[in-house]
Amino acid sequence: MRRTVHAVLAVATAALILVVPAAAHAAPEGGIHLAANSLPTVISNLQRQIMLLLGGIATLFLVLAGVYWTTAGGDPGQVDKAKGALRNAMIGYGLAVLAPVLLDIARVIVGQ
């Protein structure tokens, strides 16, 4: 009984979609407008997102380095772990600063 109800509902839904022209041919009235941006706009948006992501990750590593260093209590292994996290944070900040340069190189390669 349950399968029959589900089958009838599926067939009724498909028939309704095919019978109603507005649902079957949902064409916009003013023509088709593409939502894609130009390549320079896409590269600019990508640059901003990469800088935000790298800056956020670098800040996370900086906070972790501070926590490791504060809780080290003289343990050389913990201090080395803190130094590694601090080095990773500096690398992340460096990459965030270099992101515009790297994407400018990509623009030159693409020809924009």
TrEMBL record:
It comes from the Bacteria. Residues 1-26 form the signal peptide. Keywords: Membrane, Signal, Transmembrane, Transmembrane helix. The chain crosses the membrane at residues 50-69, 90-110. The keyword Oxidoreductase does not apply. InterPro entries: T4SS_pilin (IPR043993). This is Conjugal transfer protein TrbC. It comes from Micromonospora craterilacus.
